[in-house]
Amino acid sequence: MTSQLETTMHKIWENAKRAGRKPDDIALIAISKTRSVEEIKPLLESGHRLFGENRVQEAVEKWTELREAYPDVKVHLVGQLQSNKAEDAVALFDAIHSLDRMSLVKALAKAMHKLERKVPCFIQVNIGEEPQKGGCDIGALPDLVAAAEDAGIAVEGLMCIPPSGVNAAPYFALLALLAREHGLDNLSMGMSGDFETAIMAGATHIRVGTALFGQR
Ligand SMILES: *Cc1c(COP(=O)(O)O)cnc(C)c1O
Questions:
Q1: Pocket of ligand 1 from Cβ distances under 6 Å
Q2: How far is the centre of ligand 1, averaged over its atoms, from the C-alpha of 150 (Å)?
């Protein structure tokens, strides 16, 4: 096991225990954006099988080859998705964490129907209401959840990227509350700098890049 993976797994274990949760209930998504196949391989050799990318084209280039060598690998899309890339995304990814608008609900539903492939989705919420960030407004969430479910999309849970430079805990708590209100079980929240806080707030999917691969 790489030493960074070992350290991260240990922190997950510690914080899960502290929160009275089972460590196995927290999925570690290794965010491999910008990392080369050579940088990714040590994690695969360690037995890690869950990865995240933020760009469709980059993911196609890297993971088409890696999937042949590691057929049980899962790759999630965690970055913004343009509607015209919906079909490529449905073909490649095992989950999409960035469903954030009605037009994308339509594009993804159409692509899933065409390819006869169901890809579970997280709805991304712009939890700090920051104009430059992706994610739906909190007020738009009920309609978006309903539209996605009506379109036959499996809504796994909610995802957020809290504002940087401030304590993330209140934002994680708010996302957890919103998920409960909608009867959704999964929370994709927490990155290298704040995944321990996210675990305490109920994260089920943490997205960790730097702590596993080093500075980008
Ligand atoms: C890059 C990225 C991460 C990982 O960030 P680190 O700080 O490197 O752990 C998590 N989520 C999303 C959406 C990202 O784009």
A1: 31, 33, 54, 78-79, 161, 191-193, 207-211
A2: 30
